[in-house]
Amino acid sequence: MARQGSSSLPLPFPLALLSPDTGRRLWQVSPVARRAGVKPGMTVSQAIGLCPTLKLCEPDPVHYDEQFSRLVATLATVSPVVEPAELGRAYIGTDGLEGLFGAPEKIVEVIQLRIADCGLRIGNGSAESAIANPQSEIRVGWGRGKFVSWVAASRAKPGQAIIVFPGEEGRFLASQSLAVLPLDPDTHRRLLQLGIRTLGALAALPEEAVVSQLGRAGRRMWRLAAGRIAEPVVGRVVPEPIVAALTFYSPVGERELLARTLDTLLDRALKNPRRIGWRVHVVCVRAELEHGASWRATATLKDPTADRERLAAPLRSQLEQSPPAGAVERLAVEFTAFAPGTAELQLFARDANAAARAGRRHALKSAVREIELRIKRPMLYHVIEVQPWSRLPERRYALIDYEP
Amino acid sequence: MKADRLRALNVPQQVKVELSECGDPAFVKRGPENVKRVETVGETWRVDDEWWRQPIVRRYVEVVLEGGGRVILFQDQLSGEWFAQMPT
């Protein structure tokens, strides 16, 4: 399992990221701000009270979606079984990878190297530096089942990994805090009042006693705490390849006409409903030539996209550099690999939240362009609640710059 | 992504207020040529706050100016100065 945070630059000043949902509370805080007592979840006014020099940052959820999509696409190069759990947390099934990579340590190393390769790290060092890069927030945990691997990842230091070997789950989990369990606050408080602070203490109770006190949820908690549940990673459904083709009435040899046809076919393939919510990772163009010959060009995009121009550019350059050896009778464009998420407005996207965010961002970008045209300055601010309960109106709300 | 400090919204703007015989605002002057008559006086209330550090004592008056603009006026009871704010 890999976990990737979003705020890890070693900043010399206190900085906090506002929550993308409300904008009223803090989401992430820098180490300097944390040292001043500022914590995620605090209101802006509480944080400013503790740290008057705190700088606030507008969150960029679309960027996070894109980064997370890159992470998921990268993990898919290690194993076909990847389950994105939430923004910043993804599970990867490693069953059967021993034959390819070796022991769990090697598998974890490959995962870290691939993550580093795709640029999801901090710093400019070599890829290998990401494995022990203390500035990186990427943490990896390896274990049997999703819960054990998640706990391992959450206990790993930034940029490092923890491996829990089969048979060691009970010992590893026993010392972990109750906070790692998916508990509601009331149950958590109740267990603490009973003196149960670790998974080991919970697992030491008879299973039926926990069930009689906490019901069905108690059974699941007890089994998780005891390492009795090993939930498998469930892979995503990836779309089938999308093909758009055109048969010419008479064979075509002009490159300009072929390039224009390529654009048309890319447009048609991008509009395919199965593509919605997915960006294209690998695109290939095939040509059937006169006399039974064929021609093929493939492009693998480092940064998957749903933008026609970006898809067409590498194909066009291949068309220029090594054109078909004869006139083309039929041209086909095929999308063969995809990455989840898209920065476009997608009404029927699989990830409705990501699509809505992308839509808002798109609308804001248009608004900024229009404002710049009209008044020559991009004056766009975000209103945040500071002390909405204050009896003094000027203390209730404030502005921060907004750059979509 | 750009970090920025907070900028307060709805900061009070100093105005000159002429009072009627009964002590309610009658005219609001924002500049030499910007004088507006008060048509209606609405709610009034008082705020005493932050007495433990820099005391804030204000008397708020909600008014409707000629032309229909609704404004909140307050008088700083410590300095006697008048300010206008947008209603929230």
General description of the model:
The complex is a heterodimer of chains A (404) and B (88). Chain A has helices at 31-35, 44-50, 61-75, 98-101, 104-117, 146-155, 169-174, 185-193, 199-203, 207-225, 255-270, 308-321, 352-375, and strands spanning 2-3, 15-18, 26-29, 55-57, 82-86, 89-92, 139-142, 161-163, 242-252, 278-289, 294-305, 328-340, 381-385, 397-401. Chain A is α+β, with helices and mostly antiparallel strands and 404 residues long. In chain A, helix 11 (255-270) runs antiparallel to helix 12. Chain A is built from 13 helices and 14 strands. In chain B, a hairpin with a 6-residue loop joins strand 5 and strand 6 (56-65). The model of chain B has no long low-confidence stretch (mean pLDDT 88). Chain B has a six-stranded antiparallel β-barrel with strand order 3-4-5-6-7-8. Chain B has one domain. Chain B is 0% helix and 62% strand. Chain B has strands spanning 3-4, 7-8, 13-19, 25-31, 34-49, 56-65, 70-76, 82-85. Chain B starts with a strand and ends with a strand. Chain B is an all-beta fold. At the A-B interface, strand 4, strand 13 and strand 14 of A face strand 1 and strand 2 of B. Strand 4 of chain A pairs antiparallel with strand 1 (3-4) of chain B, so a sheet runs across the interface.
